[in-house]
Amino acid sequence: TPAKVVSSCQPIGRVFFQVDGENAEEADLFFGGACMYYLFLENGTYTYGNQLTEGGFGFYQKIFQQAAGQGGQ
To answer: How many other CB atoms are there within 10 angstroms of residue 4's CB atom?
Structure first.
């Protein structure tokens, strides 16, 4: 699904999608509140975006929860 871009959203990180060890795609991750999407980059410019699926949301939510539990280790 195309991203529903919210102008007040800021990316929380950059994600690299690899195929056979090579970077195939690069995207900024927007995660939190109304910000649940990727914006993909080509030559440093946003070219398209996709909403996170429920599975994608759960994936990142689990990673962030695990990271928060690692505090100080």
So the answer is: 12
Tokens at residue 72, please? 């100080």
Q: What's the pTM value of the predicted model, to 2 decimals?
A: 0.86
Beta strands in 1-73 (DSSP E): 13-19, 22-32, 35-42, 45-51
Question: Could you give the CA distance from residue 38 to residue 3 in angstroms, rounded to a whole number?
Answer: 7
pLDDT at 26 over 70: yes
Q: For residues 68 and 64, give the distance between their C-alpha atoms in angstroms, rounded to a whole number.
A: 6
**Residue reference for tokens 């991750």:** 29
For residue 2, give the DSSP letter.
B
Question: At residue 72, does pLDDT exceed 60?
Answer: no
